[in-house]
Every structure is written in C-alpha cells, then in structure tokens.
Amino acid sequence: MPASLSEPRVGVWLIGARGSVATTVIAGCAAVTAGLHAPTGMVTETDLFADCGLPALPSLVFGGHDTVDCPLPKRAEALVAGGVLPHGLPSAITAELEAADREIRPGGPAPGDTREPTELVDAFTTDIRDFARRCGLARAVVVNVASTEPTPVGIASREHAPTETASLECGHGWAASVAPARGGTALPPSSLYAAAALRAGCPYVNFTPSTGLHHPALASLAESSGLPYAGRDGKTGQTLLRSVLGPMFAQRALAVRAWSGTNLLGGGDGAALADPAAAAAKNAGKERVLADTLGTAPEGETHIDDVPVLGDWKTAWDHIAFDGFLGTRMILQTTWQGCDSALAAPLILDLARLTARAHEAGLTGPLTELGFYFKDPVGEGPAALGEQYEALAGFAARLRGLSREVR
C-alpha cells in the first residue's frame, strides 16, 4: 500500500545497491508492503516493537551506490532463476524496482578511477544529499551491503588501531580525516562511504565485515557527528547458531575441546571471500563469538570455500568436540543450509527502521543494543544471542517510551 500523505518518507541508501542482498531487500519491502508476502524474519514486525514509532515499510524509499550497471529488474529476474525470489515477483513489483534503480549512482573507486579520497567522499556525499532532497525525505540511513573487502594492514578487527590518524581532532575537518597521516593507513572504499554518510548527516549501518567506521581516521568524525551508527557483519547463519550453542555449553558446564567449521558458498560473496585477507576479516567475527561465549578460544579453525555453482546459497558445517561427566568424549555436528540474501534482507530492513527511529529520537553514537544483529557489534555488549535479545527488547521499550513522550 502507498505511504500515507502524513507519513514522513525515510531513505535507505544501500552501498552495493545492485547486489543480491540489496535487490532482495528492495523486492522484499515492496512485496510485504503490497501484501504479497508475510514479513517473515523481520523482528520489527513482531509484537516486541509495537508502538515504538518505527517508520512504516511503505514509507521507505531506496537508492544507493554500486560499481555495476545491471538494472534492478534484470537482477531480480536472475535471483528468481536462482531460487532466491519467488516466481512472478519481479513483474508484480516492476514499478518499485524501477523507481529504486533510478536512484542508484555510480560508486567507486572503479578500475582506473584517479579521484583522490576527498573527491570520492565529496561525490558520495552529494549523491546522498541529492537523494534526500529529490525524494523529500525526513531522513536517510546508509547501509553497507557490499562485498567483503580485505582488512587494511594495521587495522585491528574490533577496536580502532593506535595509528597517528586516530588522534585527529574534529577541528581539523573531515578532509584531514580521510587523508592518511604519515605512517597511517589509507581509507578503504567502505570507509569512504562511511565518511560520506556522516558528512551527509545520515546514520550508518555496516552489515559487512569491511572496515567502515572502524578505521581510526574516522573515530573523531564519528564521535563528533552526533549520529547513531551500528554494525558490523550481519549475523545470519553459522555465527547465529554459534551464539546460541556457545552459551549452552558454558551454562551446562561442558568443556569444549575443539570447534571447527567450514562454509561453502557462491555468488559475489563467495568470490570476494576467496581472497584470504577478506576471508580472515569474515572469520574474525565468527571465532570471536566462540571466545566470548565460551570464555576461551577452542582449538580449530573456520574455512570458507568459494563454490560458484551454489550461487546465493550457502552451507555451513560445524564439528564440536566436547567433554562430559567423567571426561566422556562426545561430538556435536551441525549443518546450516540457507539462502544468504533471504536471511539478510529482513535484518537489513529491521536495522534501517531501528536506526532511522534512533536518529529521529535524537540518539547518538554506537547503538550497542543492536548487537543482536551482528557478529562483531560496536560498543560493549553481550555475545550470547539470548542476552542480546534482552538488550534489543530493552531498546524497544526505550523507543516505546520516547514515542509516548511525544504524544
């Protein structure tokens, strides 16, 4: 159904806007809005978030950046062929797909792109601001759903690394932040987009393991922006299961001796994660959940294999060796088979709505209560899914209270 004339329009600016995940987000929002499908997987559509003042799904307007030029309707048809989207859906929501496609702008840096980092951030910022103005938006949220990039050398996976750029003050200006200081690390593309989001006055969500706001050069910029942000690396499959099983072993006082895992996946993410540096960035969050929930890092590694024929589907296998009473040795094996885009899309819609509402309510800084959605959440918070859900419920109550104050 169309948004009410009185309903403020909220933008969702997707980095990687023509990828499988982004296309599923846009198509899924249109399908749920039209009543063609139920909002399965969307926590924000459960009773937990009733009366929290979240933007309605029909009020969401999509745009974004991408370095590829395949139109969204064509991309959606490819996802139908791959079993990701239902047959007939693209033709039923052609207008919505075409509208979003018109709001996608060229990303970068593309091969041969000679623009300096400051020029790229300028261009990205202008694109986001123009989107908000052109569409008459009350606010916009920038969400990174692009393919995983390698972690830059010298950048810690969880905290800001202590390089010279970390001491930059807000007064030096954003341009100083994106130019690497002597001995510092140049900003990767994900951080250029993150800087543009902040400059455009938009909350930022990093659904990938890529650096984004975690770069030390952006620490002061994020702190002084007065904007809420969340991330990183969406928890959709293997790590979701680990965040449940890890606490189970700890709470039952069972000694985990080893925990090994393998991921088989295709598509753009599989190709990107064939790069060992990108795979290392992805695996860091998977393994951290085990260390945080078990209290120690067990033996074993997680491997990621690119299997192009799998397309958007993935299989994750875990082999857990543990000791029971009197040292009895036992094994638990799990197999998770799922469609990455279908798992991620409802979470991204949740995060866009929650972050937009946080911005509207004047909340700033890291939204630690949204750790439920991430492998490597910003700020300090629990790693066990049950505790993260409790924190999310507390956040819902907070938003509900703010909504009542407005009334």
UniProtKB/TrEMBL annotation:
Domain of life from the UniProt record: Bacteria
SUPFAM superfamilies: Glyceraldehyde-3-phosphate dehydrogenase-like, C-terminal domain, NAD(P)-binding Rossmann-fold domains
Domain Myo-inositol-1-phosphate synthase GAPDH-like: 237-341
Pfam families named among the record's database cross-references: Inos-1-P_synth, NAD_binding_5
Family statement drawn from the similarity comment of this UniProt entry: Belongs to the myo-inositol 1-phosphate synthase family.
Name listed for the protein in its UniProt record: Inositol-3-phosphate synthase
Organism: Streptomyces lutosisoli
